[in-house]
Amino acid sequence: MEMFAAVVFLLSAALLVVLLTSVILRQVAQHDVHRVSFIASLFNFALSISVMFLVPYDVWEVLSSADQLHEKSVHVMLNNVWDFVYWATFLLCWLACPILIEYEAAGEFTFVERFQVSIQRNSKRFTAYVVLGLIAVLWGMVAGGGVKAWCIAAANTWGLLASTVLMGYGFVAVPRHFWRLANPGKQLTTLYRAAVSLDEARLSAQLELQDIIMEAKQEIALRRLQIWDTDLERAFATLQVSVENCEQIQLEITRGASTSRGTQQACGVPPSDVDSGRIQSMAQVHRSLKQAAQEARSASCRWDDLVRRCLLLEDLAGKMYPSAVELATSWQSTFGRMMFRSSSVRTGWHCLVLFWFRTLRPRVLRLMAGFCGILSVSIVLGQLTMFSDEWSLSLLSLLFHRDHGFGLTQLFCILPLSYMLCTSYWSVFRLKATGWYRLYPNRGTDTISLLWCGSILARLAAPLCYHFLLLIRVKGTAFQATMEQMNAVPAVGRSFTLFPILIFFLCMCNIQNVYSRLVQVLSLDGLDFEFDWANLDDNADVRAEGKRLIQRERVRCAEERQLLELHDRRDDNTAIPLRLQIAQLIEDGTLPHDWNAHSPGP
Q1: How large is the average pLDDT for residues 3-21?
Q2: How far apart are alpha carbons 168 and 503 in whole angstroms?
């Protein structure tokens, strides 16, 4: 009966994770994401999150199992579950996702050609896999072990090195981030300086996209109708569709504004014959076109996100809180519009929002900063003595000396484990090496970014969970039995207890703000993080320029809102009620608060 309950719990948790992950990814993924790529990303995220649920359950089973028969049967079941989850995740993030990423980035015009290009671009990776497999087979013949042990060791070595750098940065940066968010004025100073850099990157990406569009149009202008070739016609048609899509993207991110380089099509001289080099040239242009469109859209999403944060913080710094009218009109869904038709709902929601911004927000953010700081210190102290079996500074291990019940055990596991994973994953997108790859809200994430983000999370999840089990010093779990197969590999298998000491050193470097100088001395610029604008010298000119850019965006948003309101007023079915129009005029200052007393008498 207990075995059946365990199976039901695991299946229910897996189904819930898949459903929630699917809903979230649909909110961030673009509409044109390929179905196969979306499914691969979905399973990457779902399997990674499932690990977060399985590890606490595995720990609870070890702490609570008194019946040896029950312990053995559940342990065997969990071993099978871990084997499936780990190897499915391994194949997805190390084999399937690299192939899909290069397939999506390829500029060729047929499935076979794009797949061949993907394999070619991953040839070095696959060659390394083959060499590693041969070494594993030979080593297994001599000293035992096998291919599975070497695969686990190789994957977890990458995860160990990456998580060491990421946690060394995130354990310091995350508490700082929450603490700075509680002060809108200082955060605005930081964002104003960042606005100048992001605006330059956005404009540069837009101009680059325009140049590639013009180059693609030159290729299309060389088409000769009197020469019929099936492959060439397919290439022209595909390139034409891509150009049209990119022009639409350009209109969206520039909001229809004209650019300084003009929009004239360049005319080329038709070639005298058709050869394979012609199609290859078009494929290169097609690849550049897709890459430029991705970078331009990503830069626009980052800029829009920065503008939204700046506008909110400016309002909070000036104590200009949103009115009930603004909150009611901000809901675009049908359900939200129906709810806000009631004046009591509008008033109640407005009071809650004001209470959050005026009272709760700074206090909650400072509490979050303090809580994250405590977690960081507790984890780093445990990592300092992870190599020793005799003595320990791990405060987390004190929570797992005995069984506290299913609920508390799950809570004690999920909180620090989630913090470790979220801190590492948050730090990934601060690395300069990641470029434009990240998750963008409001359906702004392209296919390649979605695949890349899912594969990175899958690569980090298993090593971090094993790291956590070593930290809390709970032995005998099924997950450890799966992961400890890598101990057969010399040197690498035992490194999990030694490398975490470096996290303390990296945390000290980030606290003293010397990490960037350290990686520059070591010529490891790819491991450097984005500029911490809050710690740079304050430049009044740059700050003023950033503030001007944000004010320009505020004026543009106000003009767009007025146009939408005028459009709604012309529509009798969606006309704004008179009392809401009066409230808006009072808020804008057009009417005084006692406007009725200023009205002329009859």
Answers
A1: 82
A2: 5
